[in-house]
Amino acid sequence: MTAFLIILIAALIAVSAWQISKIVSLGKASSGSNGAEAQIANDEDNKRNGQFMLYFGIGIYIMMIACFIAYDDFFLPDAASEHGTEYDSLLFTSTIIIMIVQVLTQGLLHYFSYKYHGRKGQKALFYADNDRLEFIWTAIPVVVLAGLILWGLFSWNDIMDANMDDDPIVVEVYAYQFGWKARYSGADNTLGDANVRFIEGANQLGVDPTDADGQDDVVTTELHLPVDRPVLFKFRSQDVLHSAYFPHFRAQMNVVPGMVTQFKFTPTVTSEEYKSTEFMTEKVSKINEIRRQRSKELEANGDVALDPYEFEYYLLCNKICGASHYNMQMKIVVEEKEDFDAWIAEQKTIGTTLANAEN
Length: 359
Fold this sequence. Notes:
47% of the residues lie in helices and 15% in strands. The chain has nine helices and ten strands. The protein has a five-stranded mixed beta sheet, with no helix packed on it. Strands 4-10-9-6-7 form a five-stranded mixed beta sheet, covered by helices on one side. The two termini are 58 Å apart.
């Protein structure tokens, strides 16, 4: 890939130098000389350029279709959250509208460049003013964009409505260079106060030790969520700007030092169910085949073979927050309520952890 980029850059530089030399030579030629006359486009030049425009347009659409087919594995599968379905519908509708407009406008541009290329003695037909046409091409985009904006606005309000009416589990997601920790709100479903000034020893998240609401909070390095139960996430950063990104749940929120941001969603597909989908089964199979081939090369060189890949939900950082940003992730497990309750019951509370640290 590096060699290809170097060759491409060298070719672009050469083309640029050639064009500059033509401009310089044209500037030196006098208006009445044969050199200047040679630079005037004739019918053959116009026809050739029109053909090039047509071929270029056809090439763009062939390449676009080929990319959609060749890179379909890189598309995200179905959303695993309640709001994700509406989010995907809005994105898909916007994409279809954009593609239709793009194909029509760019297709006509390239076709007309060929069909109506310049010919000697031919005069272009044009409208100096046409109120009806201007009204049509102004009104249609206004109506379509207004509809998309209103749909997006209502969807955004539904997604960002972080009220407690539907009894969500309250979970704090704590970001630091370069990892995540989760703090569950305990039996009272209320997070205790926290501040980075309280960070000391076992109190890694800076929970106020004098706040009774924080004594039953639970801190974990793995995020477990019960399926079909709303979860209200509160995000806090210890150091720099991070971004909590849940790709399969269609959720993302900036994690800003010195303030608390929040986001709520309801997971609708367990980890085990998602692993067994046709899309994910095929994708895991392809990845493991690549890893097996790579492992053969590694073992031939005396290195350790790669472990088989297994799909898991992950929380990622979507802001470049430092040298190890690429590895800032936390496993997410979506499970049935009974499994979640059993897991959370095994975790130590902050009150117990701090008491043990003092002893």
